[in-house]
Amino acid sequence: MAGESFRKSPWWFNGVNVVWKKTYFLGTKIKLDKDEMIKTARAKTGLHDLGKEFMDEPLERLITSINKEANLHPVGRFITRERFVSLLCIRLRAEYFFRKYPRILEQDLYPAWIIIGLQRTGTTKLQRLLAADPDHRVIPSWEVINPVPINMDYFENTHQLLDHNPESSIQNPTSSILYPDPLRVKIANTSVNAVKFMSPGFFAIHPIDTMEPEEDILLLDISFLSTTPEAMMQVPSYASWLEQTDQSPAYAYAVKLLKFLQWIKPARRWVLKTPHHLEFPDLIEKYFGKVHFLWPHRRIYESVPSFLSMVTYNQMIFSDHVDEQQVAQHWIRKTGYMLQKALDYRNKGNNQEKFLDIYYKNFINDPIDTLSGIYSMDGGLTPELITRFNQHERDHPHRKYGAHQYSLADFGLTEADIDQHTTSYQQFILQHNGWDQA
Questions:
Q1: Beta strand pairing status for 291-297 and 269-273?
Q2: At residue 261, does pLDDT exceed 50?
Q3: What is the distance in angstroms between the CA of the first residue and the CA of the last residue of the chain?
Q4: What is the CATH number assigned to the segment(s) 11-437?
């Protein structure tokens, strides 16, 4: 519950892991093996083709790093294997649809507003507010967990109605047959409830809602090229390799998946969000086309420890040997690196024009004013939109799940430790607005 130490897990969760681990001698330890997982995914789907762009190396390196470094408890190993098999199944199903319906990939990707602020800077609240605009296409939790339908027969039978009208709009009544997909919603609800049971305090940090948008980094996971694993567990060798590796294949494939999603449910503009994109705005520009970056900012001494506590909660779902000092050491450096990559891109040529800065205190205190600034790029706010946004605020009040308690001291840190890696970013904020408004 809110305010409870993040060092505590539910007693029953610890008990399951203790008992399960004692049975390892009986052969109950979950194995993480690339070839076995690919074989399982093919058997589950009845499909074989992972696509010509699929690469073994990212998954192999990730599994090696997990096996050597992550120190997963039994439940953590079980979740990890299930998740990796699911990602492979998604890819198999996606390739099936790309082959059967070639016009999916012939579409132009919608223009996008992409929220790229650091974790814990109001990015989730901003995206969920913008999702109240019916012109906007987002990826709700139920859909990002399984972006491609699981029940192929159900999808293809109902899609025939939609396929007769290739120019169908978001108002097309047949869309309701497909969206949302009841099976995928049920699976997402199960996942949300599992997180509540395994990590009761997590929702005060990042509330998960099956029907609300989530980060599109989960589309990059399908190529096994993303920072998700290092937020979930200790995988330093994979993280180091990833930072030196071209992420183009992951972004190119994410665009293919986005085209599939907009084919299922049309709209006018994508609204996407993940801090991961701070590291790769050049790839966003290369593969996504027409984009505008929305960059929320918050006092770095608040956002960093808040994020570190979230990572700690995450990692405790997978391991009972979580070292807060290791978490801090890894992510403070990584945060500085991501910010610098974004600043370097922003300072090139005319890239400054692609960014709109949003300040946390202003946004929390007056969301409509912040939204008005965003919509100045698109003709301004309408009374109807203001009504929608205000209703969303009433339905989703700030701190709905309680206050998230954290401090630098929880991780043995001082402000000087953060300064060491974020000087350029802090100077940028001072130049543009000043900390008192961030």
A1: unpaired
A2: yes
A3: 28
A4: 3.40.50.300
